[in-house]
Design goal:
The chain has about 475 residues and is of the alpha/beta class. It is built from 19 helices and 17 strands. Helix 5 runs antiparallel to helix 14, helix 7 packs across helix 12 and helix 18 crosses helix 19. It starts with 18 loop residues before the first helix and ends with a helix. Bound molecules: pyridoxal-5'-phosphate (PLP). The site of pyridoxal-5'-phosphate (PLP) has 14 residues, from helix 7 and strand 10.
């Protein structure tokens, strides 16, 4: 038999204050002004529901909370709800282009340019000298021409859009020839075959997973060919018994058969990053020199700028893509445009790029500096938490984000073994929910805090966050 809680005069449920009483409490007046009455009513209801459920499950002898506790819980709930969804985070994962953490951090001057573009009116689509309207997608054409030797260029909101637009403009109702070894899937469910078919073209795979020859491409070219697409396999490597034609050889074939050759290079490093430990990343300028008709790449991978997609190459093809109706749907935003321009200008002096572009700075930093920063952090933390096992350990960092797959960068981390009554997952969770949040990695029951992706100016904040998170276990 179930007792009827609500009807008993002694029931603690009956002693919970009403929604109206709590909403009318003076301590909630500010929240009502700032977040609106409905949000506060909702929060009060959630708090009351939680206690009601607890009281029901504890039966009659539980004490109901007093009014001020309930108000306090409501305020806490409302405060949590206003925490920003996109929060600054300390990236201690050692993954430089961490998609979950927003890929490349931008250079200070690029950030300032984006903020100015957002706050003020700007010459986004206006030639101030001529007083004439210009095209936003082509605004960076001269700059990209200067940097890459490209005849024409356009920018869109990311490289996926650049690929989709190119496919739609060059090959709707026609075939796109792609090697079997390059039918990539990248993060977020982006599958190249689906992009090709999804934007109205037909996929014509050639060769095999490990070997594709020039003759495979040559045989596939016909009346229905819209384009040949070469894709940089940016998140895996095909190793062993492999073959593929050089880009130059493919370009010669494409030219002879009058078929456009498109090269999706993925990351779009503008300087050679091989000396920094990322070998095999194609360079747009080189690809153009080898005779590719259109080169596509991201702005927020190894280039280190804002999320964007860049298309460079033959003028007639760029114009065709730009005129396509989809071009407007993938239009670059003015803040992005401003930030991308400034980032690209940094590369006009390539020697400065590795100082000014945070991504290159992180790639180029020597591991000695990381080691000594880790040592300083460890010494401070050992002093605050003498009972814990805290060490400097050699570690690896990665370019990530679909760049330089499998290539580790020599790095150093702080390793923390949690206390006996704690767990490494709980420690990681406290760090992740701290202020600011810190993202590390768990390896063999230790928490690794990799310094490759932590800006030196964040070290003191990081030390504080580590001290707080190791200070209590629950
Ligand atoms: C990352 C990547 C893309 C997608 O670029 P986004 O800028 O993320 O849209 C396309 N192709 C290749 C080869 C890539 O590496």
């Amino acid at each position: 038999m179930t007792s009827n809680h609500d009807q008993s005069p002694l029931s603690p449920l009956r002693r919970l204050p009403s929604v109206d009483t709590l909403v009318g409490h003076a301590d909630l007046a500010l929240a009502i002004r700032e977040q609106g009455r409905p949000a506060v009513v909702d929060a009060v209801r959630c708090v009351l529901d939680k206690h009601r459920n607890r009281l029901v499950s504890c039966e009659a002898n539980a004490e109901p909370p007093d009014e001020s506790t309930l108000v306090h819980e409501t305020v806490r709930r409302l405060t949590l709800a206003t925490r920003p969804i996109v929060q600054p985070v300390i990236n201690a994962t050692g993954v430089l282009l961490h998609t979950g953490l927003g890929r490349a951090p931008m250079a200070t001057e690029a950030v300032e340019a984006a903020a100015r573009a957002a706050a003020q009116y700007g010459s986004v689509e206006l030639d101030l000298e001529a007083g004439a309207r210009t095209q936003r997608s082509r605004a960076l054409e001269a700059l990209l021409g200067q940097l890459l030797g490209a005849e024409a260029a356009m920018v869109v909101n990311n490289n996926a859009a650049a690929t989709a637009l190119t496919v739609a403009a060059l090959a709707t109702g026609r075939e796109v020839i792609v090697s079997h070894g390059e039918l990539i899937e990248i993060g977020g469910g982006y599958r190249l075959p689906e992009v090709i078919t999804g934007f109205g073209a037909e996929l014509r795979p050639v060769g095999t997973t490990n070997k594709t020859r020039l003759s495979d491409y040559a045989r596939a070219i016909g009346d229905r060919t819209g384009a040949i697409l070469v894709v940089h396999p940016s998140n895996y490597v095909v190793q062993g018994f492999t073959a593929k034609p050089s880009v130059a050889a493919l370009a010669e074939l494409a030219r002879a058969r009058d078929v456009p050759l498109v090269h999706d290079i993925g990351s779009g490093a503008l300087v050679d990053v091989a000396p920094f430990g990322c070998a095999g990343e194609p360079l747009a300028a080189q690809s153009l020199r080898e005779g590719v008709d259109l080169v596509l790449f991201s702005g927020d991978k190894l280039l280190g700028g804002p999320q964007s997609g860049i298309v460079v190459g033959r003028r007639d093809l760029v114009e065709k893509a730009d005129r396509h109706p989809m071009s407007r749907a993938v239009r670059i935003d003015k803040m992005t445009l401003a930030a991308l321009e400034v980032t690209l200008r940094i590369y006009l002096a390539p020697d400065r790029a590795s100082e000014r572009v945070p991504l290159l700075r992180m790639l180029a930093q020597g591991s000695d500096g990381l080691r000594s920063r880790a040592q300083t952090l460890v010494e401070g933390l050992r002093e605050a938490r003498p009972q814990l096992e805290i060490d400097v350990v050699p570690d690896e960092a990665y370019a990530g984000g679909g760049s330089a797959p499998g290539q580790a960068l020599a790095s150093w981390s702080v390793a923390v073994r949690p206390a006996k009554d704690d767990s490494v997952d709980a420690l990681a969770s406290r760090l992740r929910q701290g202020r600011p949040p810190v993202l590390g990695r768990v390896r063999n029951d230790r928490l690794l805090v990799n310094l490759h992706t932590v800006f030196p100016e964040q070290d003191a904040t990081l030390a504080g966050a580590l001290e707080t998170a190791t200070g209590h276990s629950n």
